[in-house]
Amino acid sequence: MTELNLIKDYKLLPWQMDQWQRLYDAKQRGRLPHALLLTGGAGLGKSHFAHLLAASLLCTDVQDNGMPCGACKACRLVQADTHPDFTLITPEEPGKGIKIDVIRAFTQRGSLTSQSGGYKAIIIEPADALNTAAANSLLKTLEEPVDRTVMILVTANAGRLPATIRSRCQQYHFMPPDTAIATEWLNNRLEGAADTALLLSLASGAPLLSLEYAHDGVLAERAQMIQELTAIFKKTDDPIGIAQRWSNLDQKSVVKWFSGWVIDLIRVKIASESAAIINIDQRERLQALSRKVNSKRLYALMDRLFEANRTLGAQLNTQMQLESLLLDWADIGVE
Amino acid sequence: MKIVTTRDNLLKPLQQVGGVVERRQTLPILANVLINAANGKINITATDLEVEMKTSAAIECDGEIDFTLPARKLLDICKSLPEDANIEFNVDNERTVIRSGRSRFTLGVLPANDYPSIEPSASSHRFTVTQKLLKRLIEKTQFAMALQDVRYYLNGLLLEIGNGMIRAVATDGHRLALSEAECAIDQESGIQVILPRKAVLELARLLADTEDQIDIDVSSNHIRFSLGETSFTSKLIDGKFPDYQRVIPANPDKEVLANRDILKQALTRTSILSNEKYRGIRFQISSGLLQLLAHNPEQEEAEDEMEIDYQGDELVIGFNVGYLIEVLNVIESENVRMSLSDSNSSCLIQNVASDESRYVIMPMRL
């Protein structure tokens, strides 16, 4: 998820204590579920949690709070990614699906005894990348794995998983932490160098995602997109040219910023000053704009943006899709 | 740190462990062998996380060191050096330099600490058999193991040890092969372990047809075979093998004796025109005569007949010819005995002279 190497410092994120405690208690009572599904928005540290949990299952010298020690042979092998009882299943290339061969190879090996005599841990991440055939071939193992096996599925889009997978796992849902906790954590990492309130608001309260935004020049990109949207609205720039520029950007964030902007406009139009908005630094501009736009057209555009979000990664011509969306935006003020 | 040895000393151990190293590894370090040098000896270990092979070679060295080297490259280097060549290793943390005559190779090293070798765990059972005996058991049964079945406990070979017997059983749900032998094992209660398919094939390659002893250690997670300098460790399949005794027909009432070679040849001929997918062959058994019939979807037909030793009612039964031929391949006697009861019950095939190996084949509905 993030470039930060959180896994290796063996620290639990401050907002994950509850889930950790619940799982630790379950383990102490010998009632650890064999299949876990970690859900919740992107950037909440689910992956970090999964890796810590796996490490603590494999560690031979677990500390009192259930954390891995980071020093025994098992922990060393986990850090070197060579632990024989740990399997990480991810797509071969980011954004691609997890194929059936990978799952088949894993189920073959999964039936063997563990090397150390303890737990075997498997992380599948992101679980929604499993293609249909792969998901189906996993069902049998997911339902009845051999003893002392824990399979951890991580996903930010639980809805994209087949119901047959979801129903075989115990779900642990992660919520965005309190703003105070998130702000403090973020401030420690960024040393006050950025507008944490804005970052958190843009990332829907997910601290790790905020951190990513702070590092990768994402804010500048968003600012430019808002400028361009305003220019299209004022008819001072050409939607076709801008669609061409946007088609070279990361489509996920394009759709995200664009729909965030439209949603904010709707909110401001309805609730005016009291509206809770995402782009908190743009309130004045949004208010000025909201007086000139047509609600019906705004809602129609929002629906089309949700549709675009759903078909991300499908075989659509990106530029044509963006042109059509931006042309709709250009006419947003027409009664 | 310097290690000195000869090519011939090193080549055989490397070839032995090299078979375990997979061509496509999931983890980069599995392409390497772990080398531990101490006291005039190096131990070489290779693993694919399922099986581990460990062997040793004589060397000269001035201390103790653990490191890992790329297995295939090291083997290729040793192979291509002239016979009787001396080899010198200079090991440091990042690189290892290999010198021999006027050749020089620099290989990358991965840290030995990251190598997932199997810790010797306390074995709960320990016994000794001859290599020949174990090799025979494997050869007689391994063909019946399932291949990538969802019933994962069938993808291997059951070893059952107890009451002065060692028994190997393999089944894929359609046929079963069982072979047993007496051996002096003072083991009161029987133990059962399932060896994964890969370990069985690797072990068969390793064993020789000799009276040499092989030590077997069984722990809850692993089984280890030690032959002289070499030891071979495998994980076990974590499951329960089905109750195979129930599968073996208890009291079949019809008994057919046939010459093994003639039957095999007749089956091979008839199988040419059997359905390529299902490979079904019809057996028509009557007093003294066996007729074989096969036909394929193109309506082509094959017929063959042979004399057999049989007295009794007529019986028509279908079999997968592939299963039969595989059984006839491993039976050694001149004649085989087929025990049957009716066309829906399974058939027991045995060597006429001894019943140490038993083969059960389910019939096909034709």
Automatic annotation (TrEMBL), chain A:
InterPro entries: AAA+_ATPase, DNA_pol_HolB, DNA_pol_III_delta_C, DNA_Rep/Repair_Clamp_Loader, P-loop_NTPase
Lineage: Bacteria, Pseudomonadati, Pseudomonadota, Gammaproteobacteria, Chromatiales
Keyword rRNA processing: no
Span of domain AAA+ ATPase: 32-177
Keywords: DNA replication, DNA-directed DNA polymerase, Nucleotidyltransferase, Transferase
One MF term in the entry's GO annotations: DNA binding
GO biological process: DNA-templated DNA replication
GO CC entries: DNA polymerase III complex
The protein's name: DNA polymerase III subunit delta'
This enzyme's EC code(s): 2.7.7.7
Organism: Sedimenticola selenatireducens
One Pfam family of this chain: DNA_pol3_delta2
Record's catalysed reaction(s): DNA(n) + a 2'-deoxyribonucleoside 5'-triphosphate = DNA(n+1) + diphosphate
Coiled coil start-end: none
Automatic annotation (TrEMBL), chain B:
Ranges for domain DNA polymerase III beta sliding clamp central: 129-243
Key words of the record: Cytoplasm, DNA replication, DNA-binding, DNA-directed DNA polymerase, Nucleotidyltransferase, Transferase
GO cellular component: cytoplasm; DNA polymerase III complex
InterPro entries: DNA_clamp_sf (IPR046938), DNA_polIII_beta (IPR001001), DNA_polIII_beta_C (IPR022635), DNA_polIII_beta_cen (IPR022637), DNA_polIII_beta_N (IPR022634)
GO molecular function: 3'-5' exonuclease activity; DNA binding; DNA-directed DNA polymerase activity
Domain annotation DNA polymerase III beta sliding clamp N-terminal: ranges: 1-118
Pfam families cross-referenced by the UniProt entry: DNA_pol3_beta, DNA_pol3_beta_2, DNA_pol3_beta_3
Primary localization class, coarse: cytoplasm
Subcellular location: Cytoplasm
Location of the DNA polymerase III beta sliding clamp C-terminal domain: 246-365
Keyword Nucleotidyltransferase among record annotations: yes
Biological-process GO terms, alphabetical: DNA strand elongation involved in DNA replication
Assigned protein family: Belongs to the beta sliding clamp family.
UniProt subunit comment: Forms a ring-shaped head-to-tail homodimer around DNA.
Known role: Confers DNA tethering and processivity to DNA polymerases and other proteins. Acts as a clamp, forming a ring around DNA (a reaction catalyzed by the clamp-loading complex) which diffuses in an ATP-independent manner freely and bidirectionally along dsDNA. Initially characterized for its ability to contact the catalytic subunit of DNA polymerase III (Pol III), a complex, multichain enzyme responsible for most of the replicative synthesis in bacteria; Pol III exhibits 3'-5' exonuclease proofreading activity.
Name of the protein described by the UniProt record: Beta sliding clamp
